[in-house]
Amino acid sequence: MRKILLLLFALFFVGVNMNAQETCGFEQAQKELERKNPKLKQQRLRVEEQVRQEMQSAAFMQRVAQLSQNAQYKGEIYEIPVVVHVIENRTGTGNTSTNQLTDAQIQTWIDNTNKMYAGTYQSPNDPNKSFLPAGDGIDNSAVIPFKLVLAKRDQNCQQTTGIIRYNCTLPGYAEYGMKRSGSNGPSEDDIKGVAKQWNASAYYNMYIVTGFDGDFKSYGSMGYAGFPTNSDAGYRTVMRAPVVTNPNSTTLAHEFGHSLGLYHPFKGANPLGNECTVNNDCKKDNDKVCDTESCQSVLSVNPVPTNQEINPCTGQNYQGVQYNVMNYGHRLVKFTPGQRERALAMFMASRKSLTTSLGAKPVENNNTQITAATCNITGLRESKNFQSGPIKVVLGSINNPSSGYNLNDAVSYIDYASNSCLNSSFSTDIPNDTESTLKVTIKGNSQTIKAWIDYNNNGTFEDTEMVAEENYVSGGGFGGNGTEYSLKFTPPADVTFNTPLRMRVAADMSRTLSPCGEYRCGQAEDYLVKIIKKENPTDIKEINKNDNFVSYNSKSNQLRLLNNSTFGEYKIYNMLGREIYQGNSNSNVISLNKSFVKGVYILRFEQKGKAISYKFLK
Ligand SMILES: [Zn+2]
Fold first, then answer.
1. What is the reported pLDDT for 368?
2. Distance from the CA of 554 to the center of ligand 1, in angstroms?
3. Closest Cα partner for 200 from 321, 43, 81?
4. Checking DSSP bridges between strand 146-150 and strand 483-489, what pairing results, if any?
5. In angstroms, rounded to a whole number, what is the distance separating the alpha carbons of residues 299 and 219?
6. Do the Cβ atoms of 323 and 333 come closer than 8 Å?
7. Ligand 1 being an ion, which residues bring their Cβ within 5 A of it?
């Protein structure tokens, strides 16, 4: 009887304390995804093992040492474009919390989260929820070098606020919000039918719903997120509306933490507390981070123990794990350097494309309109998940790792060319008269690799437009990082210059391979290539001492017309012939922007209707 009473008391106590706190459905959501697609688990474990080995290397340790000096982070802060899908309910019944979220509230919420990552967040109403100052000690918060930025261009390169609102009229949404473990309301997939996920290689997708399974409270399970090793469809976060307006909510910092590759420090133990994690090998056990000591969830422990108190899981003083954002609890105000290192390594291993995405850059008038292909890959003869297709393509500024055709929801054709406005690594300029090297990496079984460039820009890949071919070459097996093939080519003289052209790179476990039609089990990827016609050097004059027409002064960084006429409209090209600047000078002086790096440039302007080109060295 006494036991039962104690148990009842404990349950009541846990219940009461838990109620005020935010928890997370990451583990359950991830388990569900991996049950539906067991390859995801293999992928996660494989990348984690790769990252564990990489993190032991001397090169990694050296990089970490360079990034962290005097307990302060010195490295780059990576900007991640985000799109916020707000799932409203305008039916006039049920819960309408998402309808009331303003753009300004969403912006403040993201700003607050970025301050949490920077270790500078100050709570407006609870000093206890202000973050520990940036630094490496147990009384500091390690800087997590990521910054969420609302998208400024959409997938079609049109201007956007990055906040997209949908009126969800799906049955049950008004009454129950989204279905998770219950049986009412639309599922995540149903909601994504209304609010399509944006290209996950260019945007991090955040969904805000009214509630889960009829629960609209501002505490309890507030959201979940996908691990970086997930396929694109599972790389997103879904959260309930109240987290946006609660200035002390750490849910977004926590959920994106999972999407950076971080686990709960109590992983493997009861998330409600009272159970310690096993931490025999901190690199392999529980959260796989060594400076989050063995612990229990502190969800229902209030007041929160200080670092002067004993952590029952280690028998020694707490080292700050009770304050960790990836924990549950009443005061979550810090990250650790170990979490930063793991987040960087895990994220870069799977989601590096988000760091080169142009999604958060304002729309420019860049010429990226590209001719559509007249035919594509129609499907696969054998849709078994062999590892097949390119896993990395490199040419000039194109540098695009991908998973190839491997996972259940993989596709046999990806059009990066039409999305080149989203990522600087989907397009490149190449010279017209010198050799270029296309590098294609494959993995697994033997495959045939081919590439074509639509040189005449008619939408069709003719036989004469094949630029590279490797017949049935080894993929190097399933372990490791695959095998890279370097394919050299020089564009012929009669190509379409200075115009976006489509390049198709394909690999398949087949001895024959065409640019279109049905493949065996591989993949084709399209990229944008511009072939830049070099200036004819004989037309370009050098600026030198003997010239009495134009001068360049490197100290003042100014070009000057010596005959005192005006430059008017002018353009500046790099040596590849690519226009990098255009302007209009009403005087005889052009002041160059400071952002010009050292190098050789070509200035072109007109005098009396005649084009004049000058080469100068900055
Ligand atoms: Zn979590």
1. 63
2. 55
3. 81
4. unpaired
5. 12
6. yes
7. 24, 26
321 CA to centre of ligand 1 in angstroms: 14
Q: Edge-to-edge strands of the sheet including 579-585?
A: 540-542, 610-617, 600-607, 568-574, 579-585
Which residues 6+ apart lie within 8 Å of 136 measured at CB? 68, 71, 72, 142, 337
- Averaged over 30-42, what is the pLDDT? 93
Q: What is the pLDDT of residues 104-116, one digit of tens each?
A: 999 999 999 999 9
558 pLDDT more than 50: yes
**Residue 513 C-alpha to ligand 1 middle, in angstroms?**
45
3-state helix, strand, coil in the chain (%, to 5): 25, 30, 45
**245 CA → ligand 1 middle, Å:** 19
Q: What is the DSSP letter of 537?
A: G
CA of 74 to the centre of ligand 1 (A): 28
> Which amino acid makes up residue 77?
I
Cα 523 to averaged position of ligand 1 atoms, centre (Å): 35
- CA of residue 553 to ligand 1 center, whole Å: 58
Mean pLDDT check: name the lowest of 9-13, 49-53, 329-333, 477-481. 9-13
Alpha carbon of 26 to ligand 1 centroid (Å): 5
For tokens 């049986």, the residue is: 183
The Cα–Cα gap between 12 and 6 comes to: 10
Query: How does residue 545 score in pLDDT terms, banded at 50, 70 and 90?
Result: low
CA–centroid distance, residue 165 to ligand 1 (Å): 26
Q: Is the pLDDT of residue 539 over 80?
A: no
Ligand 1 centre to CA of 280 (Å) is: 22
Distance CA 27, CA 33 (A): 10
User: Which class for 28: exposed (0-12), middle (13-18), buried (19 or more C-beta within 10 A)?
Assistant: middle
Q: 258 CA to middle of ligand 1, Å?
A: 7
Q: How far is the CA of 609 from the centre of ligand 1 (A)?
A: 67
Cβ neighbour number for residue 209 with a 10 Å cutoff: 29
Q: Are 19 and 272 in contact (CB under 8 A)?
A: no
- Mean pLDDT to the nearest integer, 128-141: 94
Q: How far is the CA of 139 from the centre of ligand 1 (A)?
A: 22
**Whose CA is closest to 578, among 528, 529, 535, 527?**
535
Cis peptide bond prior to 265, omega within 30° of 0:
no
User: Which of 296, 318, 315 lies closest to 305 in space, CA to CA?
Assistant: 318
